[in-house]
Protein 1
Amino acid sequence: MSKPRIEHVKATASAQEISLILERDGCVVIDRLLSEAFCDRILDDLHPWMNKVPEGDGEWLGFKTRRTHGLVAKSPAVRENLCHPLILDILDRVIGPWCDSFQLSSSSITSIGPGESNQEVHRDALMFPFSHPTERVAYCTTFWALSEFTEDNGATRVVPGSHRWDDDRVAQEHEFTRAVMDRGSVLIFTYAVHHGGGANVTTDEWRHALFASYVVGWLRQEENQYLVSPPEVARHYPEQLQRLIGYQVHRPFLGWYDLQEPLKLLEGYEETTAPNVDLYAEGEDHGVLSKNVRRL
Ligand SMILES: O=C(O)CCC(=O)C(=O)O
Ligand SMILES: [Fe+2]
């Protein structure tokens, strides 16, 4: 039996090539997509919080792991990275066919400290009442190595190919591999892949990762992005990010504010000052999901 492995591609690989690997294996690593300097920028933005957050207190959150949340409002570098063009192009191919638009689900820094043990193995899909296997990809995670990921310091444990398993199958030890990767690399995996944080057996090394997950626009976001970035904060973001964090309607009419596109609120729109116009009265495909959205 061949040893499980995660395919690594160069940062110059195309979105098409990467999305085909994701479809086949459920996971992939893009090597060194971020520069060391960019990793430093993210860490510099977030150090004040990362040093303050408490360690976890349970099997799931760990006992030596620190999680820093609400990054969209805290870090300009994270805001920039969430809109990485290659990642958005990949997500367009992987989640895109299942929705009109996808959105950020959550972002956090996951720092695994010395002495941490393996996290419970899970599928991120456990948040949703879908059964598996399914062709549908409603959620996808990007996991950026802000420090090197090694066998010893907590590199994520992953079971390539497990996105095709049914709900009852349990991963065996020999089916795991570790997402060992250089700083600046990103592990991408779809929501049915079995995985978990790895044990950190070092005495002095922290494993820092930027977690950013994306979800179809018709499902609830894991982290409440409107509380992280309320309108008075989100108003100052680029429109692409405003849309990505959820200030947009998913067609035909999920998520409106006063029957308007939420983006209008960010532009200074005040309730009741505008006529009650039919948001989707114009164009041929108003009021319906795009014809090409796949259904299961
Ligand atoms: O820290 C890791 O490597 C994985 C964490 C994870 O999968 C989770 O918290 O859901
Ligand atoms: Fe997870």
Protein 2
Amino acid sequence: MKPTQQCPCCGSDSFQEWTKATDREYRTTDETFTLYRCNNCESLYLHPVPIDRLSIIYPSNYYSFAEQNTSIISSIKTGLDKRFFRQLSQSVKKQSLTALDVGGGVGWELNVLQEADNRVKNTMIVDLDPDAAAGAAKNGHGYFCGRIEEYETTTKYDIILMLNLIEHVEFPSEVLKKCRELLSDEGIIIIKTPNCDALDARIFRNRNWGGFHCPRHWTLFTKSSFELCAKNAGLSVKTFSYTQGAPFWATSTLFALENIGMVKITKERPVVYHPLYAPLTGIFAGFDFIRGIFAKTSQMFFVLEKGKQI
Ligand SMILES: [Zn+2]
């Protein structure tokens, strides 16, 4: 008998099996995971999610725990982020701004946001990693170690960042509802999340697409399924854009090269640390940059604001 399951995006219990995937990126487990596609909203989701094994599936060499990268590609990205943040924060007309980064680690993105807009004063991070607290304090940010649903405060935030986070959580609609509660009336939520309705998602569907980030991405949205999830949480989309998904292309390509014996990925040297990863990412960033003019790429930026009604 199939277990009862509901789409984490829209709640529908109508689904089809989409594909199977394994942790080829970090090799933390030999288990094979099943991804389902919701027949109602077309989100993809993992079921069941390995919520009891977080310390295994997020190993100590997981990329977001690493020191800040100082490479040229990373500096370009920081410069682009700064420009992007500056454009968005200027839409909030206040003398000083409060900001919250959900899953923000030691606060690199908040640092960039503060460099982009010097009105950003009161900054807070909510993250599950106890080891990030000291680094966050050093960067001048407040830190709450726990899930966003557990974070209680009277502060309302003008800018909430959730960059590549919502796809990792068990209940995305609950997270969005909580963010709405924490948002000031004129505030914005900036979200980045993969798009499972992309060319590479189709090409690599049965070959461990990089965007599956299996088993760490639990819900993968399309533009319209995420809009629905946000609407159900009382939020509306202020602006939307696709952005380059080069890391997914690079990861998928490395898996394909491994299939023909040209590269080797190990637990000690996962995909992100493979010497071909950075050059492949550079090439695909260019490819997606051109393609992004007319096609749906595999990462999406949403800027949300409070909806007219809950
Ligand atoms: Zn759904």
